[in-house]
Design a protein that fits this description.
This protein has 307 residues and is of the alpha/beta class. Helices cover 39% and strands 16% of the residues. It has one domain: NAD(P)-binding Rossmann-like Domain (Rossmann fold, 3-Layer(aba) Sandwich). It has helices spanning 8-19, 35-38, 74-77, 81-102, 138-158, 182-192, 211-222, 242-253, 277-282, 292-306; strands at 2-3, 24-28, 47-51, 64-67, 105-111, 162-167, 170-171, 196-199, 205-207, 209-210, 232-234, 239-241, 259-262. α2 (35-38) links the parallel β2 and β3 (47-51). α4 runs parallel beside α5. The chain binds nicotinamide-adenine-dinucleotide (NAD) and uridine-5'-diphosphate (UDP).
Length: 307
C-alpha cells in the first residue's frame, strides 16, 4: 500500500512496485496528487485506487505500507497548516495502527526538514536539527518530526517493523507545475518566458535528487533487515545555490527569461546537503546516479509537454 500514491513521488513508486510484480493499493485524498499521475496504472488488475484521507483509519490486509501522504511543497503545506499537521500525525498513528494489526512493515517518508536550518553541514542522521517550533514551516517540520517519534515508539513499544527515510529535495516528472517548489517554478517560468523568481540573494543551497534515485533507495530500504529502522538520509550530495540552479535552467531550456529577486520567506534554510554514508553502507552500495543536468533535462521535457 502506498499512501499519497497519486502524488509526485507516490506515482513513481506505485509504477515501480507494479513492475516488480506486486499488488498495489494507492490511497490518496487528491489534495496535491492527481489521477493524471497514475492514469497509466488505472486498468492494471494489480492496481487499486482508493480515495481516502489518512486522518481517518483504514483497514486492508497488506504486507508493506509506504506512508507518503502529506503535501510537500511550502505553498501547499502552508495552505491549511492544521490539516498538514493532522495528516502527518494522525496519518502516522492510523497507518502504524494498521501495520501493527496486520503485522506489515511500514516505511515513513520523512524529510531533510527535520534538520531545520542546520548548523551541522552536511547533515548526518545523528544531528537533532535546528527547527523553529512556532513558525510558518513548523506544521510540516514538526509534524514530520512527531511522525518519526511515533514510528520509533510503535517500534519500541509494539515491535512494529518500521523504516524511516529522510528525503532531500527531489524533483522529476509528475511534479505539480504550480506547487511553487523551486525546480518546477524555474522550469515553468523559463518555458513561458516569465521572470525567474529567486527568493533572497540566491546564495542559499539545496541538494537536488532525481526521483528515480529516490525510488531505488526507498525500495532497497524496505528490503533491509528488520533490525535496521533508520532514519537514513536519501538524497544527492551535489549542492547548488539557487542562483546556480536558475542559470542552469536558463541554459538547458534556452530561455531568455530575466532573473528577478523576491523577498526570502521566513525560516528558509540557508544550506542543505545530505551525508549519505549510512545509505551507502546499509542499502547495498546505493548512491545517486543521475546528475542534476541529466535530471533537469528529463524534467524539462515533461514540463514542455504540459505547456
Ligand atoms: P505530493 O504533494 O506530490 O504528494 C503527496 C500526496 O499525498 C498527494 O497525492 C496528496 O494528494 C496526498 N495527500 C496529502 N494529504 C493527504 C491525506 N490527508 N490523506 C491522503 N492523501 C493525502 O508530494 P511528494 O513530493 O510526492 O511527497 C511525497 C512524500 O515525500 C511526502 O510525505 C513528503 O513530505 C515527502 N518528501 C518529499 C520531498 C520532495 O522533495 N519531493 C522531500 C522530503 C520529503
Ligand atoms: N525558491 C526560489 N524561488 C522560487 C521557489 C523557491 O528561490 O520560485 C527557493 C526557496 O526560497 C528555497 C529553495 O528555493 O530557498 C528551495 O525551495 P523549495 O520550496 O523547492 O524547497 P524547500 O525550501 O522546502 O527545500
Amino acid at each position: 500500500m502506498v499512501t499519497g500514491g497519486a502524488g509526485f513521488i507516490g506515482s513513481h513508486l506505485c509504477r515501480r512496485l507494479l513492475n516488480e510484480g506486486n499488488d498495489v493499493i494507492c490511497l490518496d485524498n487528491f489534495f496535491t496528487g492527481s489521477k493524471e499521475n497514475i492514469r497509466p496504472l488505472i486498468g492494471n488488475d494489480h492496481f487499486e485506487l482508493v480515495r481516502h484521507d489518512v486522518i481517518n483509519p483504514y483497514y486492508a490486509e497488506v504486507d508493506e505500507v509506504y506512508n507518503l501522504a502529506c503535501p510537500a511543497s511550502p505553498i501547499h503545506y502552508q495552505y491549511n497548516p492544521i490539516k498538514t499537521i493532522k495528516t502527518s500525525v494522525m496519518g502516522a498513528i492510523n497507518m502504524l495502527g494498521l501495520a501493527k494489526e496486520v503485522r506489515a512493515k511500514i516505511l515513513q517518508a520523512s524529510t531533510s526538514e527535520v534538520y531545520g536550518d542546520p548548523f551541522i553541514h552536511p547533515q548526518i542522521e545523528s544531528y537533532w536539527g535546528n527547527v523553529n517550533p512556532i513558525g510558518i514551516r513548523s506544521c510540516y517540520d514538526e509534524g514530520k518530526r512527531c511522525a518519526e517519534t511515533l514510528f520509533m515508539d510503535y517500534h519500541r513499544q509494539n515491535n512494529v517493523r518500521i523504516k524511516i527515510i529522510r528525503i532531500f529535495n527531489t524533483y522529476g516528472p509528475n511534479m505539480h507545475p504550480q506547487d511553487g517548489r523551486v525546480v518546477s517554478n524555474f522550469i515553468m517560468q523559463a518555458l513561458r518566458g516569465e521572470d525567474i523568481t529567486i527568493y533572497g540573494d540566491g546564495m542559499q543551497t539545496r541538494s537536488f535528487q532525481y526521483v528515480d534515485d529516490l525510488i531505488e533507495g526507498m525500495v532497497r530500504m524496505m528490503q533491509t533487515d528488520d533490525d535496521f529502522t533508520g532514519p537514513v538520509n536519501i538524497g544527492n550530495p551535489g549542492e547548488f545555490t539557487m542562483l546556480e540552479l536558475a542559470e542552469m535552467v536558463l541554459r538547458l531550456t534556452g530561455s531568455h527569461s530575466r532573473i528577478v529577486f523576491k523577498p526570502l520567506p521566513a525560516d528558509d534554510p540557508h544550506q542543505r546537503q545530505p551525508n549519505i554514508d549510512l545509505a551507502r553502507e546499509k542499502l547495498g552500495g546505493w548512491q545517486p546516479t543521475v546528475t542534476l543536468e541529466d535530471g533537469l533535462n528529463r524534467t524539462i521535457d515533461y514540463f514542455r509537454n504540459l505547456v
